[in-house]
Batch of 2 targets.
Target 1
Amino acid sequence: AQSVTQLDSQVPVFEEAPVELRCNYSSSVSVYLFWYVQYPNQGLQLLLKYLSGSTLVKGINGFEAEFNKSQTSFHLRKPSVHISDTAEYFCAVKGQGGSEKLVFGKGTKLTVNP
Amino acid sequence: ETGVTQTPRHLVMGMTNKKSLKCEQHLGHNAMYWYKQSAKKPLELMFVYSLEERVENNSVPSRFSPECPNSSHLFLHLHTLQPEDSALYLCASSTRQGGTDTQYFGPGTRLTVL
Protein backbone atom coordinates (compact mmCIF):
# COMPACT_ATOMS: atom_id res chain seq x y z
CA ALA A 1 0.00 0.00 0.00
CA GLN A 2 1.01 3.60 -0.52
CA SER A 3 0.78 6.67 1.70
CA VAL A 4 1.35 10.38 1.16
CA THR A 5 2.47 13.06 3.62
CA GLN A 6 2.05 16.72 2.84
CA LEU A 7 4.21 18.35 5.44
CA ASP A 8 2.52 21.75 5.53
CA SER A 9 -1.21 22.16 5.99
CA GLN A 10 -1.05 25.90 5.26
CA VAL A 11 1.48 28.00 3.35
CA PRO A 12 1.06 31.80 3.25
CA VAL A 13 3.21 33.72 0.76
CA PHE A 14 3.30 37.16 -0.80
CA GLU A 15 2.50 37.75 -4.44
CA GLU A 16 5.47 37.27 -6.80
CA ALA A 17 7.40 35.26 -4.19
CA PRO A 18 8.56 31.71 -4.93
CA VAL A 19 6.79 28.80 -3.29
CA GLU A 20 7.49 25.14 -2.60
CA LEU A 21 4.81 22.73 -1.40
CA ARG A 22 6.29 19.57 0.03
CA CYS A 23 5.14 16.02 -0.58
CA ASN A 24 6.68 12.76 0.59
CA TYR A 25 5.37 9.32 -0.16
CA SER A 26 5.82 5.76 1.01
CA SER A 27 5.53 2.71 -1.21
CA SER A 28 6.99 -0.78 -1.55
CA VAL A 29 6.62 -0.63 -5.35
CA SER A 30 7.40 1.91 -8.03
CA VAL A 31 4.89 4.72 -8.23
CA TYR A 32 3.19 7.29 -10.39
CA LEU A 33 2.86 10.74 -8.79
CA PHE A 34 0.33 13.54 -9.27
CA TRP A 35 -0.41 17.05 -8.08
CA TYR A 36 -3.98 18.33 -8.18
CA VAL A 37 -5.31 21.81 -7.36
CA GLN A 38 -8.72 22.60 -5.90
CA TYR A 39 -10.04 26.15 -6.15
CA PRO A 40 -12.86 27.18 -3.77
CA ASN A 41 -16.16 25.43 -4.50
CA GLN A 42 -14.66 23.40 -7.31
CA GLY A 43 -13.44 19.88 -7.98
CA LEU A 44 -9.85 18.79 -8.40
CA GLN A 45 -7.87 19.80 -11.47
CA LEU A 46 -4.72 18.01 -12.56
CA LEU A 47 -1.63 20.25 -12.35
CA LEU A 48 1.03 17.76 -13.42
CA LYS A 49 2.05 14.13 -13.19
CA TYR A 50 5.17 11.99 -13.14
CA LEU A 51 4.89 8.66 -14.91
CA SER A 52 8.45 7.97 -16.06
CA GLY A 53 11.45 9.61 -17.72
CA SER A 54 12.70 13.05 -16.72
CA THR A 55 12.39 13.65 -13.02
CA LEU A 56 11.52 17.33 -13.55
CA VAL A 57 7.92 17.64 -14.61
CA LYS A 58 6.32 20.83 -15.86
CA GLY A 59 2.61 21.45 -15.48
CA ILE A 60 -0.02 24.08 -16.05
CA ASN A 61 0.00 27.62 -14.63
CA GLY A 62 3.81 27.71 -14.36
CA PHE A 63 4.09 24.95 -11.76
CA GLU A 64 6.75 22.24 -11.82
CA ALA A 65 7.67 19.31 -9.59
CA GLU A 66 10.73 17.15 -9.17
CA PHE A 67 10.62 13.44 -8.45
CA ASN A 68 13.37 12.37 -6.05
CA LYS A 69 13.36 8.62 -5.65
CA SER A 70 16.05 8.45 -2.98
CA GLN A 71 14.19 10.94 -0.80
CA THR A 72 10.76 9.63 -1.84
CA SER A 73 9.64 13.17 -2.50
CA PHE A 74 7.70 15.03 -5.16
CA HIS A 75 7.78 18.70 -4.16
CA LEU A 76 5.78 21.27 -6.13
CA ARG A 77 7.36 24.63 -6.99
CA LYS A 78 6.53 27.89 -8.68
CA PRO A 79 9.08 30.70 -9.05
CA SER A 80 6.58 33.55 -8.76
CA VAL A 81 3.02 33.14 -7.49
CA HIS A 82 -0.09 35.15 -8.23
CA ILE A 83 -3.15 35.94 -6.15
CA SER A 84 -5.06 33.54 -8.39
CA ASP A 85 -2.88 30.63 -7.22
CA THR A 86 -4.67 30.73 -3.86
CA ALA A 87 -6.15 27.24 -3.58
CA GLU A 88 -5.68 23.86 -1.95
CA TYR A 89 -3.06 21.56 -3.46
CA PHE A 90 -3.15 17.79 -3.21
CA CYS A 91 -0.32 15.36 -3.82
CA ALA A 92 -1.34 11.84 -4.85
CA VAL A 93 0.45 8.56 -5.48
CA LYS A 94 -0.50 5.39 -7.30
CA GLY A 95 1.46 2.13 -7.25
CA GLN A 96 2.50 0.67 -10.58
CA GLY A 97 0.11 -2.24 -10.57
CA GLY A 98 -3.01 -3.07 -12.50
CA SER A 99 -5.59 -1.92 -10.00
CA GLU A 100 -3.63 0.26 -7.61
CA LYS A 101 -5.66 3.02 -6.03
CA LEU A 102 -4.87 6.73 -6.19
CA VAL A 103 -3.95 7.74 -2.63
CA PHE A 104 -4.14 11.42 -1.67
CA GLY A 105 -2.40 13.53 0.93
CA LYS A 106 -4.37 15.79 3.25
CA GLY A 107 -3.70 18.85 1.15
CA THR A 108 -1.81 22.14 1.53
CA LYS A 109 -3.74 25.39 1.58
CA LEU A 110 -1.73 28.00 -0.34
CA THR A 111 -2.72 31.59 0.38
CA VAL A 112 -1.14 34.30 -1.75
CA ASN A 113 -1.31 37.74 -0.18
CA PRO A 114 -0.89 41.08 -1.98
CA GLU B 1 -21.00 20.08 -22.32
CA THR B 2 -17.53 18.70 -21.65
CA GLY B 3 -15.65 17.07 -18.80
CA VAL B 4 -17.28 15.65 -15.70
CA THR B 5 -20.51 17.16 -14.39
CA GLN B 6 -22.26 16.57 -11.09
CA THR B 7 -25.77 17.42 -9.92
CA PRO B 8 -26.93 18.80 -7.65
CA ARG B 9 -24.07 21.05 -6.57
CA HIS B 10 -25.57 21.46 -3.10
CA LEU B 11 -27.92 19.19 -1.17
CA VAL B 12 -29.41 19.47 2.30
CA MET B 13 -31.26 16.47 3.60
CA GLY B 14 -32.68 15.07 6.80
CA MET B 15 -31.59 11.77 8.22
CA THR B 16 -34.75 10.03 7.03
CA ASN B 17 -34.69 11.33 3.45
CA LYS B 18 -33.72 9.45 0.31
CA LYS B 19 -31.82 11.33 -2.37
CA SER B 20 -29.46 10.61 -5.26
CA LEU B 21 -26.31 12.25 -6.56
CA LYS B 22 -25.67 12.15 -10.28
CA CYS B 23 -22.41 12.20 -12.21
CA GLU B 24 -21.98 12.32 -15.97
CA GLN B 25 -18.74 12.20 -17.93
CA HIS B 26 -18.38 13.41 -21.50
CA LEU B 27 -14.81 12.17 -22.00
CA GLY B 28 -15.42 8.69 -23.40
CA HIS B 29 -13.93 7.08 -20.30
CA ASN B 30 -14.58 3.55 -19.07
CA ALA B 31 -13.94 3.91 -15.34
CA MET B 32 -15.78 6.06 -12.81
CA TYR B 33 -15.18 6.77 -9.14
CA TRP B 34 -16.92 8.20 -6.07
CA TYR B 35 -14.79 9.99 -3.45
CA LYS B 36 -15.72 11.59 -0.14
CA GLN B 37 -13.90 14.77 0.91
CA SER B 38 -14.29 15.72 4.56
CA ALA B 39 -12.63 18.62 6.32
CA LYS B 40 -9.13 17.86 7.63
CA LYS B 41 -9.09 14.37 6.08
CA PRO B 42 -7.60 13.02 2.85
CA LEU B 43 -9.91 12.17 0.00
CA GLU B 44 -11.49 8.80 0.63
CA LEU B 45 -12.18 6.48 -2.28
CA MET B 46 -15.65 5.02 -1.90
CA PHE B 47 -16.46 3.09 -5.07
CA VAL B 48 -14.86 2.25 -8.41
CA TYR B 49 -16.66 1.12 -11.53
CA SER B 50 -14.80 -0.23 -14.53
CA LEU B 51 -16.77 -1.01 -17.69
CA GLU B 52 -19.95 -0.60 -15.64
CA GLU B 53 -18.90 -3.28 -13.15
CA ARG B 54 -18.15 -2.40 -9.55
CA VAL B 55 -14.55 -3.34 -8.88
CA GLU B 56 -14.00 -1.67 -5.53
CA ASN B 57 -16.08 -0.97 -2.47
CA ASN B 58 -14.02 0.51 0.33
CA SER B 59 -16.03 -0.69 3.31
CA VAL B 60 -18.62 1.98 2.70
CA PRO B 61 -21.79 1.78 4.85
CA SER B 62 -24.82 0.34 3.09
CA ARG B 63 -26.67 3.65 3.42
CA PHE B 64 -24.60 4.61 0.35
CA SER B 65 -25.61 2.67 -2.75
CA PRO B 66 -23.87 3.27 -6.10
CA GLU B 67 -25.31 2.58 -9.52
CA CYS B 68 -23.59 2.69 -12.91
CA PRO B 69 -26.16 2.13 -15.69
CA ASN B 70 -23.66 2.86 -18.48
CA SER B 71 -20.09 4.08 -18.87
CA SER B 72 -21.15 7.75 -18.94
CA HIS B 73 -23.35 7.88 -15.85
CA LEU B 74 -22.79 7.17 -12.18
CA PHE B 75 -25.23 7.62 -9.32
CA LEU B 76 -24.89 7.56 -5.56
CA HIS B 77 -28.16 6.76 -3.82
CA LEU B 78 -28.41 8.01 -0.25
CA HIS B 79 -30.77 6.92 2.52
CA THR B 80 -30.92 7.29 6.30
CA LEU B 81 -27.68 9.23 6.39
CA GLN B 82 -25.95 10.47 9.53
CA PRO B 83 -24.68 14.01 10.24
CA GLU B 84 -21.09 12.72 9.92
CA ASP B 85 -21.85 11.93 6.27
CA SER B 86 -21.89 15.66 5.55
CA ALA B 87 -19.03 16.25 3.11
CA LEU B 88 -18.14 17.09 -0.48
CA TYR B 89 -18.77 14.10 -2.73
CA LEU B 90 -16.58 14.05 -5.81
CA CYS B 91 -17.00 11.99 -8.93
CA ALA B 92 -14.08 11.20 -11.21
CA SER B 93 -13.51 9.28 -14.42
CA SER B 94 -10.54 7.85 -16.29
CA THR B 95 -9.87 5.96 -19.50
CA ARG B 96 -9.53 2.78 -17.53
CA GLN B 97 -9.04 1.79 -13.94
CA GLY B 98 -5.40 1.40 -12.96
CA GLY B 99 -2.16 2.06 -14.78
CA THR B 100 -1.05 5.51 -15.79
CA ASP B 101 -4.51 6.80 -16.57
CA THR B 102 -5.30 10.19 -15.10
CA GLN B 103 -8.49 10.73 -13.16
CA TYR B 104 -10.56 13.77 -14.06
CA PHE B 105 -12.83 15.20 -11.39
CA GLY B 106 -16.21 16.85 -11.36
CA PRO B 107 -17.01 19.95 -9.27
CA GLY B 108 -18.57 17.92 -6.46
CA THR B 109 -21.84 17.88 -4.52
CA ARG B 110 -21.75 19.59 -1.15
CA LEU B 111 -23.97 17.43 1.09
CA THR B 112 -25.29 18.56 4.44
CA VAL B 113 -27.16 16.08 6.62
CA LEU B 114 -29.28 17.64 9.33
Target 2
Amino acid sequence: DAGVIQSPRHEVTEMGQEVTLRCKPISGHDYLFWYRQTMMRGLELLIYFNNNVPIDDSGMPEDRFSAKMPNASFSTLKIQPSEPRDSAVYFCASSLRRSQETQYFGPGTRLLVL
Amino acid sequence: SQQGEEDPQALSIQEGENATMNCSYKTSINNLQWYRQNSGRGLVHLILIRSNEREKHSGRLRVTLDTSKKSSSLLITASRAADTASYFCATVLSYNTDKLIFGTGTRLQVFP
Protein backbone atom coordinates (compact mmCIF):
# COMPACT_ATOMS: atom_id res chain seq x y z
CA ASP A 1 0.00 0.00 0.00
CA ALA A 2 1.28 3.47 -0.86
CA GLY A 3 0.22 4.97 2.45
CA VAL A 4 -1.44 8.34 2.81
CA ILE A 5 -0.61 10.60 -0.12
CA GLN A 6 -0.54 14.37 0.11
CA SER A 7 0.02 17.01 -2.52
CA PRO A 8 1.67 19.32 -3.02
CA ARG A 9 4.60 18.64 -0.69
CA HIS A 10 5.57 22.28 -0.66
CA GLU A 11 3.55 25.37 -1.45
CA VAL A 12 4.68 28.97 -1.48
CA THR A 13 2.03 31.56 -2.11
CA GLU A 14 1.29 35.20 -1.53
CA MET A 15 -1.10 36.57 1.00
CA GLY A 16 -4.64 36.67 -0.31
CA GLN A 17 -4.25 33.74 -2.67
CA GLU A 18 -6.32 30.59 -2.46
CA VAL A 19 -4.51 27.45 -1.37
CA THR A 20 -5.79 23.91 -1.87
CA LEU A 21 -4.18 20.96 -0.17
CA ARG A 22 -5.01 17.44 -1.25
CA CYS A 23 -5.06 14.08 0.46
CA LYS A 24 -5.62 10.49 -0.56
CA PRO A 25 -6.16 8.23 2.46
CA ILE A 26 -5.23 4.59 2.67
CA SER A 27 -7.79 2.51 0.81
CA GLY A 28 -10.44 1.06 3.11
CA HIS A 29 -9.85 3.50 5.95
CA ASP A 30 -13.04 5.02 7.31
CA TYR A 31 -11.60 8.04 9.09
CA LEU A 32 -9.66 10.98 7.70
CA PHE A 33 -8.04 13.72 9.76
CA TRP A 34 -6.47 17.08 8.90
CA TYR A 35 -3.84 18.45 11.28
CA ARG A 36 -1.71 21.57 11.35
CA GLN A 37 1.73 21.68 12.94
CA THR A 38 3.57 24.82 13.99
CA MET A 39 6.40 25.47 16.40
CA MET A 40 4.20 27.69 18.54
CA ARG A 41 1.05 25.55 18.75
CA GLY A 42 2.33 22.06 18.11
CA LEU A 43 0.07 19.57 16.33
CA GLU A 44 -3.56 20.66 16.15
CA LEU A 45 -6.53 18.70 14.82
CA LEU A 46 -8.44 20.86 12.38
CA ILE A 47 -11.25 18.58 11.19
CA TYR A 48 -12.03 14.90 10.75
CA PHE A 49 -14.36 12.83 8.60
CA ASN A 50 -16.01 9.47 9.09
CA ASN A 51 -17.17 7.74 5.91
CA ASN A 52 -16.78 11.04 4.02
CA VAL A 53 -18.96 12.97 6.47
CA PRO A 54 -17.40 15.81 8.51
CA ILE A 55 -17.81 14.96 12.18
CA ASP A 56 -15.99 17.68 14.05
CA ASP A 57 -14.63 20.88 12.56
CA SER A 58 -14.19 22.72 15.85
CA GLY A 59 -10.46 22.95 15.23
CA MET A 60 -10.80 24.90 12.01
CA PRO A 61 -9.34 28.29 12.88
CA GLU A 62 -11.78 30.48 11.00
CA ASP A 63 -14.11 30.71 8.04
CA ARG A 64 -11.20 31.07 5.65
CA PHE A 65 -10.60 27.35 6.12
CA SER A 66 -12.83 24.72 4.56
CA ALA A 67 -12.50 20.99 3.98
CA LYS A 68 -14.35 18.52 1.81
CA MET A 69 -14.34 14.81 1.22
CA PRO A 70 -16.31 14.12 -1.96
CA ASN A 71 -15.49 10.42 -1.92
CA ALA A 72 -13.66 7.81 0.13
CA SER A 73 -10.36 8.32 -1.67
CA PHE A 74 -9.98 12.09 -1.76
CA SER A 75 -10.12 15.09 0.52
CA THR A 76 -9.19 18.75 0.20
CA LEU A 77 -8.36 21.47 2.67
CA LYS A 78 -8.79 24.95 1.25
CA ILE A 79 -7.64 28.27 2.63
CA GLN A 80 -9.17 31.34 1.02
CA PRO A 81 -7.79 33.95 1.36
CA SER A 82 -4.48 32.81 2.80
CA GLU A 83 -2.56 34.83 5.39
CA PRO A 84 1.07 34.66 6.58
CA ARG A 85 -0.06 33.18 9.92
CA ASP A 86 -1.37 30.16 8.02
CA SER A 87 2.21 29.14 7.30
CA ALA A 88 2.63 25.67 8.78
CA VAL A 89 2.93 22.00 7.90
CA TYR A 90 -0.44 20.44 7.19
CA PHE A 91 -0.84 16.71 7.70
CA CYS A 92 -3.52 14.35 6.59
CA ALA A 93 -3.99 11.07 8.44
CA SER A 94 -6.35 8.14 8.16
CA SER A 95 -7.39 5.28 10.37
CA LEU A 96 -9.17 2.02 9.74
CA ARG A 97 -12.49 1.36 11.40
CA ARG A 98 -12.13 3.18 14.68
CA SER A 99 -10.59 6.59 15.00
CA GLN A 100 -9.07 5.88 18.40
CA GLU A 101 -6.79 3.28 16.93
CA THR A 102 -3.58 3.83 15.00
CA GLN A 103 -3.54 6.81 12.67
CA TYR A 104 -1.39 6.74 9.54
CA PHE A 105 0.05 10.07 8.58
CA GLY A 106 0.96 11.43 5.19
CA PRO A 107 4.27 13.23 4.59
CA GLY A 108 2.66 16.64 5.02
CA THR A 109 2.40 19.81 2.96
CA ARG A 110 4.74 22.61 3.98
CA LEU A 111 2.89 25.87 3.33
CA LEU A 112 4.55 29.27 3.30
CA VAL A 113 2.39 32.33 2.83
CA LEU A 114 4.38 35.45 2.06
CA SER B 1 -4.25 23.93 27.11
CA GLN B 2 -2.47 20.76 26.04
CA GLN B 3 -3.89 17.45 27.20
CA GLY B 4 -0.47 15.85 27.02
CA GLU B 5 2.87 17.33 27.87
CA GLU B 6 6.15 15.56 27.37
CA ASP B 7 9.19 15.82 29.55
CA PRO B 8 11.95 16.56 28.84
CA GLN B 9 11.48 18.86 25.87
CA ALA B 10 14.87 17.79 24.53
CA LEU B 11 17.21 14.89 25.30
CA SER B 12 20.71 14.18 24.04
CA ILE B 13 22.39 10.82 24.62
CA GLN B 14 25.13 8.60 23.20
CA GLU B 15 24.44 5.55 21.08
CA GLY B 16 23.87 2.51 23.24
CA GLU B 17 22.36 4.44 26.13
CA ASN B 18 18.72 4.23 27.12
CA ALA B 19 16.34 7.13 26.52
CA THR B 20 13.33 7.79 28.72
CA MET B 21 10.57 10.22 27.85
CA ASN B 22 7.59 11.03 30.01
CA CYS B 23 4.10 12.17 29.18
CA SER B 24 1.54 13.64 31.56
CA TYR B 25 -2.10 14.20 30.75
CA LYS B 26 -5.05 15.79 32.47
CA THR B 27 -8.27 13.86 31.91
CA SER B 28 -9.40 10.24 31.81
CA ILE B 29 -8.27 8.35 28.74
CA ASN B 30 -9.33 5.42 26.61
CA ASN B 31 -5.82 4.77 25.38
CA LEU B 32 -2.47 6.48 24.96
CA GLN B 33 -0.26 6.25 21.89
CA TRP B 34 3.31 7.16 21.09
CA TYR B 35 4.40 8.47 17.71
CA ARG B 36 7.77 9.31 16.21
CA GLN B 37 8.44 12.12 13.77
CA ASN B 38 11.68 12.31 11.85
CA SER B 39 12.70 15.77 10.68
CA GLY B 40 10.58 16.88 7.73
CA ARG B 41 8.41 13.79 7.79
CA GLY B 42 4.98 12.70 8.95
CA LEU B 43 4.31 10.97 12.23
CA VAL B 44 4.73 7.22 12.56
CA HIS B 45 2.81 5.17 15.10
CA LEU B 46 5.02 3.30 17.57
CA ILE B 47 2.82 1.73 20.21
CA LEU B 48 -0.64 1.91 21.79
CA ILE B 49 -1.42 1.17 25.43
CA ARG B 50 -4.97 0.92 26.69
CA SER B 51 -6.20 2.38 29.95
CA ASN B 52 -6.44 -1.08 31.56
CA GLU B 53 -2.84 -1.96 30.67
CA ARG B 54 0.20 -1.02 32.71
CA GLU B 55 3.10 -1.97 30.50
CA LYS B 56 3.72 -2.87 26.89
CA HIS B 57 6.78 -3.85 24.87
CA SER B 58 7.63 -3.63 21.21
CA GLY B 59 11.17 -4.47 20.22
CA ARG B 60 13.45 -1.96 21.96
CA LEU B 61 10.46 0.08 23.13
CA ARG B 62 8.86 -0.20 26.54
CA VAL B 63 5.82 1.87 27.48
CA THR B 64 4.30 2.17 30.91
CA LEU B 65 1.03 3.75 31.93
CA ASP B 66 0.02 4.92 35.38
CA THR B 67 -3.58 6.10 35.24
CA SER B 68 -3.56 7.11 38.92
CA LYS B 69 -0.80 9.60 38.17
CA LYS B 70 -2.07 10.34 34.66
CA SER B 71 1.34 9.67 33.21
CA SER B 72 3.13 7.45 30.75
CA SER B 73 6.75 6.82 29.92
CA LEU B 74 8.48 5.62 26.78
CA LEU B 75 11.81 3.85 27.18
CA ILE B 76 14.04 3.22 24.19
CA THR B 77 16.78 0.76 25.07
CA ALA B 78 20.19 0.55 23.41
CA SER B 79 19.53 3.67 21.37
CA ARG B 80 20.87 4.15 17.85
CA ALA B 81 21.61 7.25 15.82
CA ALA B 82 18.57 6.35 13.71
CA ASP B 83 16.36 6.89 16.77
CA THR B 84 17.04 10.62 16.49
CA ALA B 85 13.58 12.15 16.09
CA SER B 86 10.78 13.88 17.96
CA TYR B 87 8.52 11.67 20.03
CA PHE B 88 4.91 12.54 20.80
CA CYS B 89 2.39 11.03 23.11
CA ALA B 90 -1.24 11.22 22.06
CA THR B 91 -4.29 10.48 24.16
CA VAL B 92 -7.77 9.33 23.29
CA LEU B 93 -10.17 10.70 25.88
CA SER B 94 -12.58 8.28 27.50
CA TYR B 95 -15.54 10.58 26.80
CA ASN B 96 -14.60 11.41 23.22
CA THR B 97 -12.96 8.47 21.56
CA ASP B 98 -12.86 9.93 18.08
CA LYS B 99 -9.91 12.23 18.56
CA LEU B 100 -6.22 11.93 19.24
CA ILE B 101 -4.85 14.81 21.26
CA PHE B 102 -1.12 15.23 20.84
CA GLY B 103 1.37 16.41 23.40
CA THR B 104 4.17 18.86 22.92
CA GLY B 105 6.85 16.33 22.01
CA THR B 106 10.36 15.38 23.12
CA ARG B 107 13.21 15.98 20.71
CA LEU B 108 15.70 13.12 21.02
CA GLN B 109 19.24 13.40 19.66
CA VAL B 110 21.36 10.25 19.66
CA PHE B 111 25.04 10.83 18.96
CA PRO B 112 27.08 8.06 17.33
